[in-house]
């Protein structure tokens, strides 16, 4: 079965991502239930070239443990912390860190269409401040 | 008498005193680099802080670091000479980079009521970069 897809829009720039259901079945199911997302997107201050949404929606708060944990956040990848405290999307070198050091996250989705323009828009948060992000389901047709 | 500088950003001006006894090489290079007109941006790795890149201060002669610190206290000014990076903190903040924890030279302290200045630093996370001027305070 094909992976479920989501549409990401940041200040008018759109991309499509596939959920990483094989790696993170519980987290991606909760993420799908939490859609649509309509929030400010803020530049990260501990994790490098990434932006975050804070806090995540209610279904993700029920996910209390990691799945296939990673620390690096590859560009164009969406990840989440357990208990839904935040979701991050990277535009360059990024590692999940906070005040006390490096921590682990669960991968949720990877951009598969229009990656470059979206990454350029994410990078602009460093100079321009907050952007607005919407994430919606791409329904299978 | 210690030399002082003025920092102006987003309509807020504060004065900082240079720590010439603790960081003589760095304060001298900083003084010679003035005035500095650059963009103040929020840090990506270091937490609750902001930074300015001034290429004139990217200088291997500023090693070894003086008055070395790893944690930035609010209201202080530090330099990472490998990047020419002037670091300002408004809360919990460290001299971090892609490679992990690092070190910096703490060479100046902001004087008086710093609250408005620290608020401007914090706002760079949500509002983006802001033009900043640092100049000598004469007299």
Q: What is the strand content of chain A?
A: 35-45%
Order of helices and strands of chain A: EEHEEHEEEEEHHE
Which oligomerization state do the chains in this entry correspond to?
heterodimer
**Overall pLDDT of chain A, averaged?**
95
Unreliably modeled segments of chain A: none
Number of strands of chain A: 10
Domain count of chain B, please report it. Answer: 1
Fraction in helix of chain A: 10-25%
End-to-end distance of chain B: 10 Å
Q: Share of helix among residues of chain B?
A: 10-25%
Strand order of the largest sheet of chain A: 1-2-9-5-6-4-3-10
Shape by Cα distribution of chain B: globular
Q: Mean pLDDT of chain B, nearest integer?
A: 97
How many beta strands in the DSSP annotation of chain B?
12
CATH topology of chain A, by name, is: Cyclophilin
Largest interface: A-B, 17 and 18 residues
**Helix and strand run of chain B:** EEHEEEEEEEEEHE
* Count of spatially separate domains of chain A: 1
Level-2 CATH architecture of chain A: Beta Barrel
Tally of alpha and pi helices of chain B: 2
How would you characterize this protein structure?
With 141 residues, chain A is an alpha+beta fold. Chain A has one domain: Cyclophilin (Beta Barrel), CATH 2.40.100. Chain A contains four helices and ten strands, in the order ββαββαβββββααβ. Chain A has an eight-stranded antiparallel barrel with strand order 1-2-9-5-6-4-3-10. Chain A starts with a strand and ends with a strand. The model of chain A has no long low-confidence stretch (mean pLDDT 95). In chain B, 17% of the residues lie in helices and 47% in strands. Chain B is built from two helices and twelve strands; from the N terminus they run E-E-H-E-E-E-E-E-E-E-E-E-H-E. Chain B is globular. The mean pLDDT of chain B is 97. Chains A and B meet through helix 4 of A and strand 3 and helix 2 of B.
How are the SSEs placed, and which strands pair?
The complex is a heterodimer of chains A (141) and B (139).
Chain A (H helix, E strand, L loop, with lengths): L4 E6 L2 E7 L5 H10 L2 E7 L4 E6 L4 H4 L15 E4 L6 E8 L2 E2 L2 E2 L3 E8 L1 H9 L1 H4 L2 E8 L3
Antiparallel strand pairs in A: 1-2, 1-10, 2-9, 3-4, 3-10, 4-6, 5-6, 5-9, 7-8
Chain B lengths: L3 E6 L2 E7 L5 H10 L2 E7 L4 E7 L14 E2 L1 E2 L3 E5 L4 E10 L1 E2 L2 E2 L2 E7 L4 H13 L2 E8 L2
Antiparallel strand pairs in B: 1-2, 1-12, 2-11, 3-4, 3-12, 4-8, 5-11, 6-8, 7-8, 7-11, 9-10
